[in-house]
Amino acid sequence: MLETHHGCTDALLDQLVHGRDDGTAEAVARTRGRQVSVPDVTADALLSDDSRRPLLATGARALQRIPVLSSAGACTALITVHWPDAGHLPTPAQAKAFGLLASDTAAWLARYHRSILLDALEHLHRRLTHAAH
Length: 133
Description:
Layout: H1 10-18, H2 25-32, E1 36-38, H3 49-57, E2 62-69, E3 75-83, H4 92-132
Antiparallel strand pairs: 1-2, 2-3
């Protein structure tokens, strides 16, 4: 589920949300559990033509996919960064910052699921159980 975006077209959003098939950088990042760089969207072998078109139409010429991994190592989310210039690769400092962002996001998601979501479900259960009596 897409949480937020900034300036994405409908075609690109569709690709980001549904691009789980082979031929996407998302699939590689998700299944391998590591950051994936695509320095040239027009020529990279990781991308199928179907996943390439919406990227190019929005001016993305390079991208980075960063998996957000649970403590068990499962990919629970992905962070995507696009650049307008082909040939862009994140610097080591940027890659490290992306890794920290993904780690912080994973910790927040775990806390959210353990506390806020669980508390809300327990509250609903109490209300529904009480209403049934």
